[in-house]
Fold each of these.
Amino acid sequence: MKKVYLLSPLSEREIASQFKSLAVHPEGIDIMDKKAVFYTFKIKSLSSPAANILKQEALAAGAELATAWSVIKDPDTITDALLMGTYRQLEIISDKIMSQQFGLSAVAGELRTAITNLFRRHPVLKYKDSSLGFMNGPKLMGILNVTPDSFSDGGKFFSTEAAVEHGLKLCEDGADILDIGGESTKPGNESISPEEEKRRVIPVIKQLRDKIKIPISIDTMKADVAAGALENGADIVNDVSAMGFDRAMPGVVKKYRAGVILMHMKGTPGTMQINPEYNDVIGEILSYLEQRADYAVQAGIDKEHIALDPGIGFGKTTEHNLLILKDIKAFAALGFPVLAGASRKSFIGKLTGTDMRERLPGSLASALWAASQGVDIIRVHDIKETKQALLMINHIMDA
């Protein structure tokens, strides 16, 4: 019988499962797990002296740094770099460069924060008197649009009765959160009044609150709508403007001790898809979300009440959306639960040549990829199908 065989690259969760199957002593696990999780970080715009110092420290720790080859001979080179190593190696490197010049102390601070947030990552999203945990995989957020014009299902659930019926079905199919929106944010959409938005969503929230136990999220940028929804049974505010549209929003979230999801959007729903451009799509979104989370905390919102959403489809081209999905693990390094919402979006249609009714396979592929990268909340239209797919992935990971 073969005595040596290769395991697939292991996540922290899978490594813990392997240790458990081997009956490793708990003290041994504490020593070894820092050596078992491997990370690759991209570092932007290092000077040649900084890159050379970081290379030396990486090699000394048993890690590696990849840079432009010209760093060796040209002291004026500015280079991006890939730093590759285990948690323990990166911990040693960050300690070594903490007091170095050439901007390396800032690199050390960001690196230490990122690996600390990622390692043994057990985020939680608190809301009112309860919370959601994500240790056993992502939670599914079911989409309920109470609108006549949403891009996917506008008009299908516009009446209160139809919306409540569909909300109950999403719960029956296995939704962990119900996200109710009364205003479409599809590209080019015109805003509606807070009064009209409340007229659409509050009766639905009130009826569903009496019938379901899972948390309800209100998808709105308007503080008045959020307050009305929270007063009538909603638990979480899903704000696509990251509380940038309405200055009163932080006060409402704080008052009701609600959870809040802060999303990145370039521009407004009316302008976001007019030639969106980025120099560094991941870096720019990371910086934006970090700033908005800091703003929320400074406004008095507890850190554990905040989740982040990079905003797939909101001011992004198809290539931008693919890059966000590919590198979505980067957002977990900020230390908050991460939401991904790619369900039925137009970039799936562009890549697969399908219309809205035929995008389930592409939506499932996006959801499964997001789950494999440690995303905490996946926002979808098709709860039942996504739930089954995630169940299979969990069984495979735990085998």
Amino acid sequence: MEIGRLLTAMVTPFDANGAVDYAQAKRLALALLDSGSDGVVLAGTTGESPTLSHDEKMRLFSEVKEALGSRGAVIAGTGTYDTAESVELSREAERLGVDAVLLTCPYYSRPSQEGLYRHFETIARAVSLPCIMYNIPGRTGVNMTAETQVRLSHIDNMLGVKEASGDLAQIAQVVDEAREGFRVWSGDDQMTLPILAIGGYGVISVVSHLAGAQMRQIVQACLSGNVDEAARTHRRLLPLMTVLMTAAGNPPGVKHALNAIGFQVGAPRLPLVEPDAEAAERIVAEVQRQHIDLAVAV
């Protein structure tokens, strides 16, 4: 399975009682492929992984993969702050047939660079699946340096990294020094264009829930050398990218936007809450201003 350049970090739909709505998750994943995504990341940050039980995660991986088949990649969020648990989750996800796993830097414990290396090495060597690391120091409290990423890139099944450090110098060093074929996806929609410009591979996106075709245009325009076209689309989407991240945080912002356009995904689980009235108004106003690529069944 080709993992693809545009992946959506998918929300987890919940029903009115707060239970995972697996049928709606399958509908959403298919709609995302139809609107431009190459695949979906399940049970990541946007998918509210800290609030999903082990059984919920595994059923979500299994049902969405069954629905997508060979049409698109399913990347399972199996990384936690516990290396042994991450190995267990990754092995079980592999048995269910997912196409790759996403492994976040361990959060809260703030390990050293050697600790980070051994954490990711241990998980990668426990499975045969492609592994994608996720560097997001704003959430985890620790930055995985370029040197550590480059060192990890030499593990055969370490496919790449989702980079959300915001440090272009660090990201450029990874692009330049990692083994050939190691992929760098932007982990921040607003950084997509500059990361592509310095040799990044693609983006693991949130705004692609609503603007998948347009995000795909950005990637393809960069690849074809049409930077002006890519920049125009990127600038047009920047206000939407911003409001989804800042008005109520992620994923409450994008969940509210999806609900507003008629694709029901429910409210976030505690400790996350729905946007207040002012934030909700800002989100809806920007959504109404933008062209929305996601098809909503009537």
Amino acid sequence: MTVPASARDFTIIDVDTHLTEPRDLWVSRAPAKWRDRVPRVEIVDGVESWVMDGKIIAGMRAHSSVLPDLTKSVGLGAISNVYDDVHPASYSVADRVSLMDAMGIHAQILYPNLLGFGGGLMASFDDELKTVSAQIYNDAMADFQRESGGRLFGMPILPWWDKAAMLREIERCAAMDLRGVNTNPEPHLAGLPDLAHDHWTPMFEMCSDLGLPINFHIGSSDDQRDWFGTAPWPSMEDDQKLAIGGVTVSMQNAKVLANLIMSGVAERFPRARFVSVESGAGWIPYLLEGLDYAALEMMPESAKMFSMKPSEYFRRQFYACFWFESRFIADTIRQIGPDNVMFETDFPHPTCLYPDAARYVERALADVDPETRRKVTGGNASALYRIDLPRMEGHALAA
């Protein structure tokens, strides 16, 4: 694992990673009345399992492909790794920061695993228990941010199932200095109004006022959580299904971006900022060209509700994240706009860029100008999430 000398010319803020939840994350922080109901580790039929309110919600998978010897497991085997199989940077704040130093990464944004990327895996539990569990998770994110010395920034789970609790939690998370929110992009699939409804107006207004970007991680809705999905043909082997499903699920965020723009949400809340997380960037130029064409050629009367073209809303308010793309990413950045793209690794999941993230960035962005490279690798994320960049001589984006 080596960091190229040229990496001194840019700072990496990795905008999509996951920290495997420590075994005591909930029980160590829960009030006594909730301690036996929140997520906890128990031995069930001789097997360690995550249990919530007496119900098994998951085995003890570590959600990590990075092994103790710093190699990486691949394929379906990476999904079945348990805590003792993987590098402690998967679940330990101190070890994560040490590994970030070795990889040349200044800061990371964290998303959840156990409760679902947007909290959706708690759907079958009562709302109060879900809300308490989300609040405890968010408390842990604030703790991790402090323990890391401002290197790890967890995106809190919003209790989107309870409007009043959601609004209180947005204010509470802002007061704890958390830097954004993470929520369900398709609440209508869970029986609530869709995001264009006035039900969500206070959420958009509050996040805008508090400067909290709204993050939509793939796999965060009822429609997206099946990683095999319906895309692979039934005759495929499981590893083939995972490959197909893992790629196509990323592009499901096209629905999210299209709806936020074409429903008028972006028009109504011009200060809101939206991030499409772990979804890649190569498909976005097509989406924006298609939406512009549809608005101008297919629905000119309806388009009068907009003050700009769909692609212009994107450039004003939206961010894409890329990781493994390299062949065409320089051109994609030029088409999307250098202010609207950020870099991620998805550490420590099976698709993650590991261990040479800095060297990968150097190669993938070799054809972009230095200022664009600085924006994409860290400058855009620094501005969006209010993360200080280390001062560099001659660095226009440094704090």
